[in-house]
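Quarterly update from the structural biology core.
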Amino acid sequence: MFLLGTSYVVLTCRSRMMAPAALCLCLLAGLSYISGAIAALTLGCVWILMSYARGPDEPLSARVRVGGFVAAMAGLLTTSLQLYLTRVAPGSDPALRYELTWPDKPEFWVFLLGKVGRAVGRPFPALGVEFVFAVGVVFLLAASLFWLLGRLARRVGDSVEWRTAYVYLPLALIVAGYLMLVSLGRTSVRDPSIRSAWDVFQFAYFRFHFFWVTLLLPWALALTVFAWSRKRGGRQQKVKRSIVILMAMLALAAARGIFSVNDHYADNAQFRAKEIRCLAEQLGSREPIRCPSFDMPDWTPAYQYGRRIHASFIKYFPVVAQQPSSDVLMHWTSREAGASNHATLTLNDVHAAPDGWLLGGDDPQAVFHARDGAGFSRCQVIELSVRIRTKREDTLQVFFLKLGEKIFTENNSLRKRISETLPGRYEELRFTLDSNEGFENRLRIDPGQAGTEFQLAQVDAACRLRMPGNE
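Predicted structure, tokenized:
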């Protein structure tokens, strides 16, 4: 988006603000992602070379030259920064880096070809037919590119063709560069069972990185219509040729399911539902998270990184209470004392009633001080279980401290209703405590409102998600 905006500014703006505006847009593209940085560098280099080819519109060539140097400078700066942050910086995690697949490996090109085929809708059922179709799409894109280059090289291109080339040529090379980056970094991220070229080709259809290729398809279609209309013939004949091409493209789009939007979203929702179910069932189990659609030995580092940067998808994957965790941080029961318990209990504004129950005052509190301070500080998600009974319906509130905090606050608290329990039975309430910074080893439980009568039987805390490097 930023680079398309740069093209619009450079090709249409004749004021002095053209260069600063183009610089800002290219910097935004380069800082947004590493592919944007390399794309800005590619755009700049192509424009510089084209500007010296002396097109028919000299003022436009001059603007393109200035825009090229601006884009190249921004692209070089942001590419260097992105490479440093992702591959060199001391804070970068080598465990998050994928094995690279270089162009000397056949699977590099097979994977790239699969991305091109996926950009033109759903694949044909026959694998061989789909492979030939993908090769045909590559041929069409290359033919449109070389036809335009041939027109410019023979000096027969007019100003319209030159303006088209200023957009299409860098765009084509940007997309080609992006596909190579994807093949370089993503071809190896697959299950060991995917070995043959056919398997790699099909594997390329499962990821979303094909969308850049879709930018080229309207341009290739337009150039096909434009090139055929340049052949000899009357106006009526040229219109018929254009209609034939457009009808053929529409028929192909229908055959590839491009217009089946409802089917696409239905299939995607079904696929995502399986992913979410698989991840949710394993998240917080303290075991490696493996799902068929994620070709990773363990999804936990990706989840931890998403939490650290506050990625939007994290809200769909909370760590919830499941089976008992083996990573116990604290265990306390009213039947045990001393070394048997993992925490000491301090009761504030609570008195013992004659019948053996505890009677709360105006602000009853039960404060637990756990012995495993290091375990609390290295945990990001704690599952807390409280077994309690009361003589009336009430609200239990749990307070926790993020690492470094000293005072309990409402912001770091959770509430749940307590039902009036039957004699001799306790209610178990479960809470999920969340802190990317870790926790202090103190917990506070407010068993109810003023005057509540309660009995606290057991409190357990277990870590569901350790900090990166502390698994």
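The mean pLDDT is 85.
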